[in-house]
Specification:
8-stranded antiparallel beta barrel; 8 strands; Lipocalin; globular; single chain
Length: about 150
């Protein structure tokens, strides 16, 4: 009976220690992590890694499968991003947290080279993200749902 009690106590203590670690590792209160955008029909569109630098959030294109074209270039992009590889390209920049959203950033469409203003909002307890790209004011734009995916780097 003492062995059973000792094992039960050990299980309770280890659960109390490991649960917060898993919750903290997920960081569901932040957009930082790996995301899969969905097109208007709900079809997955690759992977975007959102990361934080000095309080601002950025997003770059990550490889989604071994068959991704690693030689594809952003031929429609301008400035420093012109002709850069699509995989690894930073397409989202300068988003800052404000009132539960991430605002004042921009997002690049590598298919056209157009840069739009953008904002992000976490939903579904941090498991989904609504990205809104727009011209000038949010009224002139569209939203896209992104799903948080398991991060193989963790």
């Amino acid at each position: 009976m003492r062995i059973f009690a000792a094992l039960a106590a050990l299980l309770i203590v280890s659960s109390a220690v490991t649960l917060p670690v898993h919750a903290a590792g997920a960081r569901l209160d932040s957009p930082a992590g790996l995301w899969q955008p969905l097109d208007s029909s709900g079809k997955p569109e690759g992977l975007i890694r959102i990361f934080e630098v000095n309080g601002l959030y950025y997003g770059r294109i990550e490889p989604a499968s071994p068959t991704d074209d690693r030689n594809a270039r952003c031929t429609h992009c301008t400035g420093k991003r012109h002709n850069q590889p699509i995989i690894g390209l930073v397409i989202m920049r300068h988003l800052k947290p404000k009132n539960g959203e991430y605002v004042d950033g921009d997002i690049l469409d590598p298919n056209t080279g157009h840069v739009y203003d953008c904002s992000l909002r976490l939903t579904d307890g941090g498991h989904k993200l609504i990205m809104r790209g727009f011209f000038g004011i949010s009224l002139f734009g569209r939203s896209q749902t992104w799903l948080r995916v398991a991060d193989p780097k963790r």
